[in-house]
Amino acid sequence: MTVAIYAGTFDPITNGHIDIATRAARLFDRITIAIAENPYKEPFFALEERLELARKALDGLPNVEVEAYDGLTVDFARKVGAKVMVRGLRMSADFEREFEMAMMNRKLDPDLELICFMASQEYQFLSSSLLKEVASLKGDISCLVPEHVAEAIKRKVVVKE
Fold first, then answer.
1. Of the listed 56, 90, 106, 156, which one is catalytic?
2. What tens-digit pLDDT sequence spans the chain (161 residues)?
3. Of the CATH numbers 1.10.10.10, 3.30.390.60, 3.30.590.10, 3.40.50.620, which one belongs to the domain with range 3-160?
4. Which of the following is catalytic: 50, 87, 128, 132?
5. From the candidates 17, 50, 87, 132, which is the catalytic residue?
């Protein structure tokens, strides 16, 4: 059985993330969406909210589970028995950052393989931070996230005003 993890902050999960997770789920027996607590960034959504949004968005994928973690991603990968780390690449700037992380992860765990999925064309530009910025300026994000995520973002933006 090949187990993979797809780690990130998912703050919030977008259609781009869902696309990568769906494609990865076709290749691996089990994939864990590993949502990082990430004390180095101030998240828009609390960890429990991010978990709930992701679980609902990925509910139709039977071999996908969503779990929280803190600490090193390679340690979490070992904990869940993952041999593969899935990442998405949008553009060349992503490649440089992913390459740095891949080399560090290779040092920390030489047995953990990295597989990068090229983002689908319609999501090449999409990032959670850009999405939140557009939403805060009252832009329409409905085609970029599941409906329940769009509603959660709208509620958060209204509260912060």
1. 90
2. 899 999 999 999 999 999 999 999 999 999 999 999 976 778 999 999 999 999 999 999 999 999 999 999 999 999 999 999 999 998 777 888 888 989 999 999 999 999 999 999 999 888 888 898 999 899 999 999 999 999 999 998 865 55
3. 3.40.50.620
4. 128
5. 17
Catalytic-residue membership of 17: yes
Instruction: Give per-residue burial for 91-121: e unless 16+ CB within 10 Å, then b.
Output: eeebeeeeeeebeebeeebeebbeebbebee
Task: Give residues with Cβ within 8 angstroms of 61, minimum separation 6.
Answer: 21, 22, 25
Among this protein's residues, is 132 annotated catalytic? no
> What are the residues whose beta carbons fall under 8 Å from the beta carbon of 40, sequence distance 6 or more?
none
Residue boundaries of the structural domains of the chain: 3-160
Angle between helices 147-160 and 47-57 (to 10 degrees): 160
